[in-house]
Design brief:
Blueprint (H helix, E strand, L loop, with lengths): L3 H13 L11 E9 L5 E5 L2 E6 L6 E9 L3 E11 L12 H4 L9 H18 L5 H7 L19 E8 L5 E6 L6 E3 L9 H15 L14 E9 L4 E8 L7 H9 L4 E8 L11 E7 L3 E10 L5 E12 L9 H15 L6 E5 L5 H9 L2 E6 L2 H13 L5 E5 L2 H14 L8 E4 L8 H10 L3 E6 L2 H13 L2 E9 L9 E8 L2
Parallel strand pairs: 3-5, 10-11, 15-16, 15-18, 16-17, 18-19
Antiparallel strand pairs: 1-2, 1-4, 2-3, 4-5, 6-7, 6-9, 7-8, 9-10, 11-12, 13-14, 19-21, 20-21
The protein binds S-adenosyl-L-homocysteine.
């Protein structure tokens, strides 16, 4: 496809001064989409020049209008689809394009899974520098949601719905249009629970009836900012928390009476956030009705010889407050944790460290099968939840520390060494945020030399980078398995096992 003359021109311009962009804004370009970027845009090359095309999916050939041109790449949007991808499907959601939450809803679910599997593989090769034969030997097939044909719908146990006014001044609740603060009316996101619609409509009719104003970002005035809904999928418990720019609701009892009548309602609260910020939740919480928290029980599976998920009786029950971090797709989380547990290879005696442990979810499952588990997490409230979760589940061999993984772990090792003791850690599990592990955390792992490292990742690029460090430090990459936690979006979750060569 290369057009050499143009390539040379771009190259020469680079030597003399700032290069001219290859294309300019508003140019119309024909491009075949061969990949999907981490933000969901379709990626294709035209004459060696890379285009990121919004709303295009792998396999499409589109005419794209350039929206922003850089030296070696440009952003564009689909002007029209010249030849649709054979994997293109009609998005079920009417606002899929504007919303931007589901970047790849127009791709069949099977193709979404294949794309995620390929992305992990490509990053291990390109960023991790692993040999192709090794990668192909260790990678196991991505774990998709159960019903492949129906696709991954209604899986989320949490929704945060902004409330505001449209340009005509009417009350709206819905979703922000991709990268903007304009609210598109939508009370029934197909990734969320069906009951969300009833809850949102209940809040909206209360607001209309009692003239309760929505918060307006431009002026900082108005009262109701967001409606947060969480549910315990296994218990059927529902929590509603209204985020307020103020500390009380007028005619509170009217709203509470209506919400409380919804089957499953367990907790109704308000959260105060009077700051002019994009951060959704404030610190202050007040329960208006019912419990302060809801509960959810997660079960894990045994992993069969063939990689299948065999139901087991092991479960842990978690308490969730409006402020807690909790995985949003419980069906898939159970499979993710099952794999992490299986990879940890516990026999009842081991000492395990679970770094980036959140509210102790992985730690507590591991504790049931290990000698002792230590969890580390930066957010103090999450550690309080983790301790409470351990207590309520009768788990006594788990201990939790507040702090940065890259500080708590080295300090622990130093202290042990000062007493001329071995840290005695058999397994380390890490589940860092997207930016991956801090290099000090990885160095300490290499120094401790646990037999096994289980790496749970939500970003294949930083995963591949970190796995390289561990591989260079004496670990063998043994198993890699993506688990689709976020169907219709580009997010990719992966679990890996490394064992020490020594
Ligand atoms: N394993 C948990 C949470 C994973 S999310 C679960 O499955 O639910 C990643 C967690 O890492 C978040 O709770 C975040 O607060 C925490 N975190 C971020 N940076 C950290 C650091 N440097 N040290 C320890 N924890 C950190």
């Amino acid at each position: 496809m290369g057009n050499n003359k143009r390539d040379r021109r771009a190259g020469q311009a680079g030597k003399k001064g700032p290069a001219l962009p290859f294309y300019k804004k508003n140019d119309l370009v024909t491009v075949s989409i061969t990949d999907q970027g981490s933000d969901g845009a379709g990626i294709g090359k035209a004459d060696g020049y890379t285009l990121f095309v919004k709303d295009a999916v792998i396999g499409d050939t589109v005419k794209a209008r350039i929206t922003k041109a850089k030296k070696n790449y440009a952003y564009a949007r689909v002007e029209f689809i010249q030849k649709p991808s054979p994997d293109r499907v009609e998005p079920r959601c009417p606002i899929a394009r504007q919303c931007g939450g589901c970047q790849i809803q127009a791709l069949s679910y099977e193709k979404q899974l294949a794309f995620k599997q390929d992305k992990v593989r490509a990053d291990l090769l390109r960023i991790g520098g692993f040999e192709q034969t090794l990668v192909d030997a260790v990678m196991e097939p991505i774990v998709g949601m159960q019903d492949l044909a129906a696709g991954p719908w209604r899986y989320r146990n949490k929704a945060q719905i902004p409330v505001g006014k449209d340009s005509a001044g009417h009350l709206v609740a819905g979703f922000y249009a991709g990268r903007t603060h304009r609210i598109i009316p939508m009370t029934d996101c197909l990734l969320g629970d069906e009951v969300n619609r009833e809850i949102v409509e209940c809040v909206m009719s209360y607001m209309q009836l009692y003239r309760v104003p929505p918060y307006e970002e431009e002026t900082g005035k108005g009262l109701i900012r967001h409606i947060l809904i969480r549910s315990g999928r296994s218990t059927g418990q529902i929590m509603v928390c209204l985020i307020l720019n103020g500390d009380r609701l007028p005619y509170e009892s009217e709203l509470v009476r209506q919400l409380a009548a919804i089957p499953g309602m367990t907790s109704i609260s308000v959260n105060v956030n009077t700051e002019r910020t994009n951060v959704i939740l404030g610190k202050e919480l007040r329960t208006l009705w019912g419990q302060d928290e809801i509960e959810d029980t997660l079960r894990v599976f045994d992993i069969g010889e063939d990689g299948s998920f065999v139901p087991s009786s092991e479960s842990v029950t978690f308490r969730i407050s409006p402020l807690s971090f909790y995985q949003v797709n419980p069906e898939q989380t159970q499979k993710l944790y099952s794999l992490a547990l299986d990879y940890a290879g516990l026999t009842g005696k081991e000492t395990v460290w679970d770094l980036y442990c959140g509210v102790g979810t992985i730690s507590l499952f591991m504790a049931r099968r290990a000698g002792k588990v230590c969890g580390v997490e930066i957010i103090p409230e999450a550690i309080e939840n983790a301790r409470e979760n351990a207590r309520r589940n009768g788990i006594e061999n788990a201990q939790f520390f507040v702090g940065k993984a890259e500080e708590v772990l080295p300090e622990y090792v130093l202290q042990k060494r000062a007493n001329e003791e071995d840290p005695g850690i058999d397994v380390i599990c890490v589940d860092p945020p997207r930016k991956g592990c801090d290099s000090r955390c990885l160095e300490t792992i290499l120094e401790i030399r646990p037999q096994r490292v289980v790496y749970v990742s939500c970003d294949p690029a930083t995963l591949a980078r970190d796995l390289r460090v561990l591989a260079d430090g004496g670990y063998r990459l043994e198993r890699v398995r993506p688990v689709d936690q976020f169907g219709h979006t580009c997010h990719i979750e992966t679990v890996c096992l490394l064992t020490h060569k020594g």
